[in-house]
Structure of DUF7920 domain-containing protein:
Amino acid sequence: MGRGPHHDGTRHWKDGRGIFRGRRGATRPYENVDGCGICCGDRSGDVADSSAARGYATRARDALQEKCIRLAFCRAFPHNNRVRVHTTFLTLAGVDFILVERTITGCDDAVYRANRDVWEHVPRGQASVLIADPGEGAPRLVATLQGLRKFGQFDAPYGVECGTPVVAVALEAIDGDCGHVTAFAHDGERFWLVGTKDVHMLVRFDVPEEDLALYGVDEGVSWRAAVPKRVASVWRDTLRALPEGRAAALHDYLSTTGRTACFDGILRGCGHLVDHGPRETLKFYAVTCRGATPHEGLCADPASSMAAPQSFGLDVVTPQPAVELGTDEYAALRDGMARRLNCEGAVVYGCNEAGVVVRMWKQRSHAYAMERAAQEAIVTHRLCGVALRSRLAGRLAGLPEEVRQRLGDWEAERLDYLVRFAAWLHVTGRQTARTDLGGLQDLRRRWITLQNQFTQCVAADAHVRSQVMHYEPSGDDAVRDRLSSALVCRAAASPHSPAPCTLCCARHGFRHVGSTKTRPAEGGSFLTPFGARSEVATRTLSSTR
């Protein structure tokens, strides 16, 4: 059994030392900086010696931490307070490991756009594992995990400067939690490094529960903070479901090649809009190479790299056939993705003539954007009945004609359904004028589950079906809903809010789509196929993987 991890520092200065200990850096009661229990007996005469010993241990750990950070990352950004480094000390299988992770805090888009060096050297998901053996001197790097670099729409900041994509390979964008996994072996023991883009966990080959327990208990932890451990648990279930021998072969593949497999975790109750089915799973969509620079490719060619994970039995996103940019085939690909229901869109991998991935971008589904806007109207603004129908119908009517044409299926299949679903939330008391922010957040997290319950309920109960078909809020309820909506929107607009109202974002994005015809200098129309590298697509919704 391993020893519990010790997290150290949240922001590191030039010398690699944390200026203060955040929540992750706090030691547990009766625990010293080495993660070992402190004897609580009556030893008042040893207080001075004990204090000196702890001070020495702290200085030694700081020096070790500094060495590990320098070995983990070839490029440091000590003066950028948005680039954070975390170190975790833990013991597994009798070996003392140091896990070093680097992330961007807050909305990372502005950071990457302002500093290309950060974009090149700090992908969305970066971690290294080192071993510190007192008899060997300097720590030794044993594993590196590299996620994908940031990408958004087809724009210049997120691509290789010297590369021009000529061929596009599209994979369905999965509406899940971004994660990664890599592997290594030490002294005959196999290990995985797995987690989300911000938090990774080091576990042994069979992912025993005692290894996961080292990272704390779930009781009292927010649902978002519990996601990394949930991802690790799903990874364990995935390994157990593989045919005999495949898990070991997968481990050998990742450890010998030094590659990182990137996936999206489909977890229940995590607030996604796309229904991928009831089973929790990890959908793999990319493979990155250790130490590869952007000029060597943003990732391995998806058309061929997905064959390896699939051969081991993993659930992968199937690449679509490659098409040339600027052709009718590419226009048809984009048009099909823009129309798809129950789909976030596609991630497009742009390859140059040598087959190197030099640019990645997202092709959004317009139906997905309308689903997001509908959720905002139902949950945040608490609309239902005629008011909700008018809001969504007005939104559709205000869109450019070429976008509206691609939403015909969504309007026919989803508009009435969502109006009845909103009514069901009110009829069954799942949403009222008194629902607080926590309750609204719970509605978002359980969005797909609640829709499935609604479908089953109205199919089985004719009385409820009749109620939701004709439901309208009373006058007093409507007034309370408007007041509650105003308070929620005011809270969402506060400086502590992570993002503005999605409905407003969607409105701005759709308006921007329609305005490109009168402002050609800003780039081509959103639906115009890309030709040369210099042609920049209009950004609609800036959400990125």
Notes: The first strand starts at residue 3 and ends at 8. Residues 176-316 form one domain. The CA atoms of residues 7 and 24 lie 5 Å apart.
